[in-house]
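Appendix B.2, paired examples.
Example (i):
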Amino acid sequence: MNEDSQKVYSSTEVSLESQKEPANQTIGILLAGILAGIVITAFALSSYWSLPDWKGERWEQFSSIVRNLGLVIVGFPALWLAWNRTRTATRQADISNEQARIANKQAELAEKGHITSRYQDGARMLESTELSIRVAGIYTLREVALTNPSQTYFLVLDLLYAFVTAKSQHRSAKLQFHPKGQSYIDYGDFPTDLHVALISASQIRERGTEIGCEGQRSWTANLAGANLSGADLDRTNLSRANLTRANLSMAELRYANLSKADLKFATIKGASLIGTNFSGANLHRAKMNISTVNDTNFTDAQLDGANLSGSTLNNANFTNASVVNADLSKTYAKGSNLSGGNFKDANFENIIKLNESWYYEDKPPTNIPDKVLNLVAIRTRIDS
């Protein structure tokens, strides 16, 4: 018998004893009240009987005294009984509440055991050699995290990201050539189970953001060194992810959230980065050449030493970005916002449409050669 069951058993015994006590006490009080009434009445009768004239006015006084004594004799046990019943009811209510609390606790323990079992089942399924079983395991883990985020949120995410990182590093490769003439490593189609794992993790994080899980502790999605080449990650949430030295070449990252992500030395060659959010991200020495970087947000990003040569940078936002020693040669920079960016020692050779880039007049970019800066348009802010 466990501790909670012992509490329930003890509470039941107390409840039975509490039902016996009032009856015994009530009989004792009634007998005591009757005896006291007899004694008091006898005393009153003896006192008045000894008077010479106990009739008339004396008799009325005597009758009044006897009547009041009778009311006291009858009322006292009734008042005590009412009080005792109230006390008993309160004790029984307390016992019922305690039993309900224990029952709820036992239900919580049972549910927790069920959650643990489902998590373990999902984790074991990831080790299967069958693709369908691995995918089923991923969906099981996703449901565990979505239905019980307070207990399993970070646990499931860490497992899914570890699964993707470990398995992706064993992908086979062959040399291919990009349409623009540069070579790249082709790893073939991105594995289905890894794709499902990344999408499921993103869905979990979106839900976690809504209910406040993301801000509970300092945590990062660890995908350092993962090979995500060719992955379709459109609109996924990879914010604050550790993607140092990760391979995202030829990946689809349209409108993905990589804000504050760590992408130092990452390979993002030939990727589709349309509308991607890199605000606050660290892209130190990242290889982003021959990529499509249209409408991409680099606000406050670190792009020191990054290679964007040959990329399309239409309407890219470099506000307050650090682009020190970055390679921007042969990029197509139409409509890019350079306001407040630091472009010290950046390579602007053979940039196309630089004259259609711009900055706000109150926030010019810094460390750009005059002959380059003179080509960039200046805009005036319009107060809304």
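Example (ii):
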Amino acid sequence: MSKEKIEFTSHSGNLALVRRRVRAFLEAHAFTEKDRLLMVLGVDEACTNIIRYAYALRDDQLISLSMELGRGCIRIRLRDYGKQAPKNAFRSRASKFLKPGGLGLHLIRNAFDKVDYKLKECGTELVLMKKLKDQAAGPNAKETRSFSKPKKRAA
């Protein structure tokens, strides 16, 4: 089982490092490039939400990120120790309403198979889970695409 954990402060300047570390972790596993990109963006959005809402833009607060492979899936956990949002705040808006606010949750839910917010005594833990697409392909599998014209049927 591969596992990695990093801790960083809630300074937005740390998000580029977080994106690089998440991408590097995901590259060792059988995901399509599109899935990797969406998962990296989802983690980035979740970190941004922690900074903005849990820590009210304070840039000196602790965020923990752990990533692990196990039981046919990738599990990413983000932990903060800030202000908790009310349970109804974890609902995303319909994507047809293109206004700021709520679309980040929609992105996170589209990037992962399971999204679980666990309210702790102090802060919140966000657990993101994505099933491996093709375990038989191995860790070095690459996304392949092939296009062919449909064959004409003889009349």
